[in-house]
Amino acid sequence: MATANTQFVKRIQNIMRQDSGINGDAQRIEQISWMLFLKVYDDREKVWELTNDDYESIIPAGMHWREWATDNKDGKALTGDELLDFVNNKLLPALKNITVTKDTPISKAIVKDAFIDANNYMKNGVLLRQVVNVIDEQDFTDPEDRHMFNDIYEGILKQLQSAGNSGEFYTPRALTDFIAETLKPKLGEKMADLACGTGGFLTSTLNLLKPQIKTVEDQKKYNEAVFGIEKKGQPYILAVTNLLLHDVDNPDIIHGNSLEKNITEYTEKEKFDIIMMNPPFGGAELDTIKKNFPTDLQSSETADLFMDLIMYRLKDNGRVGVILPEGFMFSTDGAKRNIKQKLFNDFNVHTIIRLPTTIFSPYTTVATNIIFFEKTHKTQKTWFYRLDMPDGYKHFSKTRPMKLEHFDPVREWWNNRHEIQDEDGNYKSKAYSLEEISKNDYDLDLCGFPTETEEILPPDELMVKYKSEREHLNAQIDKTLSTIKALLAED
């Protein structure tokens, strides 16, 4: 069955590669995404129509997938220039211009959001008909076909991972599953990812909540359990589609930018029990965005601002698992230092896991970490643990990705924490007090974790890597200069 699911994506891609209008994997995936959404949504509507006699679709008449895409073998199915004209001049404009008000249910409003940025890149109407036919073969009202979508989705994500900048939407499934498993979500709690990409953390959470459903009330809690925000259209469509197929009829995912609102204005109702994130890093934000944050926490670095946002949107007793690059960990520049000072003094940062450097390969080999913290009390001590590359692996890759079982060493250590020193004298695992961390000016390079890599990287990746290393080196130089100045002042 897995082979059939893999073939589904390959069949579509092989057809699209013959079309002169599509240039590269990124456009192919965008094209697949909106078409797949429309098919999945139509199949969900069939279910809603059966369970609700008064159900009214938000999709205009004639625009439902079943009305134009399904080939009934009667010679009337649209194809060629006629199909192109319909998609370009009727279907997409109609879906982009759907009227949505504040009273429109989420289950309907998502259609307009899904198509705001959607485009038809295909120029050959016969090839477009072939793609439509392949997608129409899937029956997402059937539990078996719905289960198959998980593999289809993973196939699309693997293509995303190697589609240039689109790779930023992809967090390895083993990583989202491990963080969700560690935070142990329960029905009745609200979990959020404030830059959710294709929804990996959302679905990892739902997979843990599904077995907890015992009653109708539990099903309602499940339907309202996760929240996401994603500003880019194509990953947004994939996230919504995946939630629909996880029995979430009202996918609470906003198509927008989490950083556009002043973070001091969030109310208690807009806070969450659990936040899981892999914030975009390496990006720069405009001054207008930075003004949404307290002056001492303002930064141009996207990941820094998301850390601010997380701290302001976490409920009391809430818990977080967030992936951050080493630039955040080691730097002691003004904003980064202030953010970390607030983090350690207002929250309990209990664990930091150092991840293998190639976990996000081929998108980047910049070293990353998982920071686990809770809004309970100020940090007393923080445990650091370095997760090494598993035996038999020199590095991870698209064909040999990280698996959940590779986290077994962390799982075994988690409930039996102890200090581990390696042969080089560095610490694989060690706890530091808040006093030690603050004395180190919140530079979290405390265990001597190695950062070297033997890989020869492409130019774009080298630039990101050297930028991160430069930040770390500059931080060390600044610290040394401060020490020298203090000694001179004493003299």
What does this protein structure show overall?
With 491 residues, this protein is of the alpha/beta class. The chain is 45% helix and 12% strand. It contains 18 helices and ten strands. The chain has helices at residues 2-16, 25-51, 65-68, 80-96, 106-115, 125-136, 143-161, 173-183, 200-209, 216-223, 233-244, 287-290, 302-312, 326-330, 334-346, 408-414, 434-439, 459-490; strands at residues 191-193, 226-230, 253-255, 272-277, 314-325, 348-354, 368-374, 381-386, 420-421, 427-433. It has a ten-stranded mixed beta sheet with strand order 3-2-1-4-5-7-6-8-10-9, with helices on both faces. Strand 2 (226-230), helix 11 (233-244) and strand 3 (253-255) form a beta-alpha-beta unit. Helix 4 crosses helix 6. The longest helix has 32 residues, at 459-490. The radius of gyration is 24 Å and the shape is elongated. The termini are far apart.
